[in-house]
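User: Second chain of the day. Same drill as before.
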Amino acid sequence: MSSVATAAWVDVPYAVDHRAASYFRGGFNSCAVRGDSLYVFGDLETLHEFNFEKKIWRVVPWNGDAPKPRQGYAGFHYGDCFYVFGGLTNGSIERDFIQYDFATRTWSVVVVNTGIQPAVICSFATVLHASSMYSLQQGQAQSVELHKFEFYAKTWTSLTTTGQPPQPRSKCAYISHVLQNETWVLVGSHQGTYNDGYIFDFDLLY
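Assistant: Same format as last time:
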């Protein structure tokens, strides 16, 4: 955890549930905040919760078919669901899009009405904006692709953008964030390091 006031990293003390300890053996995981807790999908088909106030890890109970263990996926919270999208399982790309409903404690496949989801979905960046999720990734033709999933309409759209896009890269540390002026900032690396940063203006889409 980073302390903004002192600009320093500090260790967060915690108590570990023995079932949740399996999370720490993996990598390239995603997390999302819901209320007073942080949620991470781990390596053993389990969703883990870290409560900020109690400083306790626990395994979240579930029904239904949980996603396969994976790395390099996108995990995010929207509405009252935690979503797992894409990733790698034992070197094989997963193309599923699955949600965990906190109200029913149930995993289920996300219904898609129209559109085609990204073909290659591993080690990519996602960000939530308005009622949509945006996915930026390296395309099949060594290009950068931007895709949009609209939650209410349940549709995928491939977006056409202007300007100079980032260089294609994979297995990188993408960082994406929506600022007050509704832009997307990301950085990353592939086979070395990059110190570049890019801003995407959502207003240009509308």
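The CA atoms of residues 98 and 109 lie 4 Å apart.

User: Great, on to the next one.
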